[in-house]
C-alpha cells in the first residue's frame, strides 16, 4: 500500500497571529492535491509542516503505510520531498545539480547517470545537462528543481507555487510535467498555488486555505 499522510488539528502562530487554525485532512489517494489561497494565507507554512520541515504549535502530522503509523526519521524523510518556490541552483552543470541528492545517498555512478538523464528528459532539459545551471531562465530553473526532486523518486512530492514568477510558456510546460507525474507514478503530489487555471488543469482534489482554515 502506498504512503499516505494525515494531518490533525494543525495550528501555527507567527508573532502572536494564528496563521493556521485546526487544519485537518487525509491525503490517502494517489493523485494531485491542489492547495489554493491568496498570498500570505499560510499555504507554504502548511506544506513545510506536512513535509516535516517545520513543527506545528499544536496538532499532529502522521504518515501511514499499511495502516501503520511511521516514525519521523531519516527513512521517512527520504520518501518525501518538498520543492520550494525559490530553487537554489549550484554554480555547476545542470547534470551535477540534479545528481547531488543521489550522490550523498551513495548511489553508484551508472545508476546516477541513468536516473538523472531520465529526470532531465522528463522535464525537457536533457539537452541542457552540461550547461551551467546559473545560466538557465527562471522557468528552466523551476523545471530543474522538479527534476532534482523526482530523481529521488519520492512517494509524496510537495510543490510550493511551482508556476509562480514564470512566463506563460514555462507555466504550461510545468503544468504538463505535473499532469504527467500523475499518469506515470502511483504517488501523491501536493501543490500550492494561487493560480485558478493551474488548479483546474492539474488538480484532482482542490483544497482552500481561508482565514487559516482548510476547506475541501
What is the number of helical segments per DSSP (H or I, 4+ residues)?
A: 7
Percentage beta strand: 25-35%
Secondary structure: number of strands:
10
Rounded to the nearest angstrom, the distance between the terminal CA atoms is 24 Å
What's the helical proportion of residues?
25-40%
Biggest beta sheet summary: 6 strands, mixed
Which term fits the overall shape? globular
Task: Enumerate the strands of the largest sheet in spatial order, edge to edge or round the barrel.
Answer: 6-7-8-3-9-10
Which structural category fits the helices and strands?
alpha/beta
Mean pLDDT: 93
SSE order: EEEHEEHEHHHEHEHEE
Roughly how many Å is the radius of gyration? Answer: 17 Å
Description:
The chain is of the alpha/beta class. It contains seven helices and ten strands. The radius of gyration is 17 Å and the shape is globular.
Summary?
By secondary structure, this protein is α/β, with parallel strands linked by helices. 34% of the residues lie in helices and 29% in strands.
